[in-house]
Amino acid sequence: MAYETIRFETDGSVATITLNRPQVLNAVSVKMHEELRGALKAVTDSRAIRCLVLTGEGRAFCAGQDLTDRAVDGAKIDFAESIDKNYNRLIRTLRGLEIPVVTAVNGIAAGAGANIALTGDIVIAARSAEFIQAFIRIGLVPDCGGTYYLPRLIGRARAMALSMLGDKLPAPQAEAWGLIWKCVDDDKLKDETRALAQRLGGMPTKAIALMRRAFEASIDNTLDQQLDLERDLQLIATKTEDFGEGMRSFIEKRPAAFKGR
Ligand code: T3D
């Protein structure tokens, strides 16, 4: 399928979606939302894809909503519908994928773009990248799960100040605060992302998806609830082919060949 606003590429078990409107810092248009839905459906439908990378073309990861779509006559836009149908659906789809999601933040990530970036299971950023909760600059509140993830990841004080001030958070600071996994030199981002994604693409995919469910639930669960959940998820994991292979490879003292089943 031909795309206008994104690139969708697969390489073995890894799919890469590149937001591709660099002239507007990959701002998200209605067309981009449509194309993202199409690409994510292809990812969901594929049995071969076992890791998704989301990144941006040019000097930005994504500058959030395309504001030129909004400037003409904001009053006539059904924002609730737009957020439900586009942004919330995107975040829910990304968080619901049964494969790991790596966001490779190649540059500026602003507004919805910042919070889409933070949706990755593993967030790796170029050292020059910046995260901006830009919403307040135009009189909006953070969306795309920002008000959920930010206080949980970096605490209320930092979440509030970042969102209220709309200041830039450089990637090294984001790493130091635990907002992202790590930043790497700009010229190493592509290679590091590829190596990471290929590694994840060869891992026990179902266990990774179950693990995500456990971590998501742990945010609100008590220890007792979490212990029960871990037991239930472990039961599911023990029934996968990959668990059998993991055990055999251990006994036979050879590397495991996981299939994601
Ligand atoms: O509406 C709803 O459905 C509600 C949901 C909202 C979700 C949201 O994401 S709201 C937040 C939207 N995003 C922003 O407010 C960020 C807007 N952009 C900026 O503040 C700045 O561009 C940046 C701080 C991100 C980067 O600044 P800088 O100086 O590095 O670049 P620039 O010169 O501002 O941008 C380069 C070009 O991209 C420029 O176009 P030009 O002048 O070269 O023709 C600029 O207009 C364009 N651009 C940047 N961001 C957007 C954009 N065009 C449309 N929409 C954008 N979001």
CATH superfamily of the largest domain: 2-enoyl-CoA Hydratase, Chain A, domain 1
Order of helices and strands: EEHEEHHEEHEEHHEHEHHHH
Under the CATH scheme, the architecture of the largest domain is Alpha-Beta Complex
Instruction: Name the beta content range.
Output: 15-25%
**General shape:** globular
* Strand tally: 10
Helicity range of the residues? 40-55%
Task: Describe the structure in your own words.
The structure is a single chain. The chain is of the alpha/beta class and 261 residues long. The chain has 2 domains: 196 residues, 2-enoyl-CoA Hydratase, Chain A, domain 1 (Alpha-Beta Complex); 48 residues, Lyase 2-enoyl-coa Hydratase, Chain  A, domain 2 (Orthogonal Bundle). The chain is built from 11 helices and 10 strands. The strands form 2 sheets. Strands 1-2-3-5-7-10 form a 6-stranded mixed beta sheet, sandwiched between helices. A 4-stranded mixed beta sheet has the order 4-6-8-9. Strand 1 and strand 2 form a beta hairpin. Helix 1 packs parallel to helix 3 and helix 5 crosses helix 6. The longest helix is centred in the middle third of the chain and has 18 residues. It starts with 5 loop residues before the first strand and ends in a 10-residue tail after the last helix. The relative contact order is 0.11. The site of ligand T3D has 24 residues, from helix 2, helix 3 and strand 6.
